Amino acid sequence: MKRFILISLIVAAALEMPSALAAGLTRADVIEHxxxxxxxxxxxxxxxxxxxxxxxxxxxxxxxxxxAHKDAKxxxxxxxxx
Length: 82
Description:
This protein has helices at 2-22, 27-39, 52-73. The chain is built from 3 helices and no strands. The chain has one domain (2-73). The chain is globular, with a radius of gyration of 14 Å. The longest helix is centred in the C-terminal third of the chain and has 22 residues, at 52-73.
């Protein structure tokens, strides 16, 4: 099972790389985003092939809500000047 998850993560990363490059993201940007997702409860280490899309979407929504809350308070978010 761990091997399947590892292979899935490698394939997902390989598929995301061109879109990340096209968006002008650096490796540091992607890692920062993953850390932010983990900070709102997403656990990539326990991702199963059946729950992955839903868990990832839910984490993205929680992160967006957190960033919107910070924006409302005037706290800089990722990509803004600090």
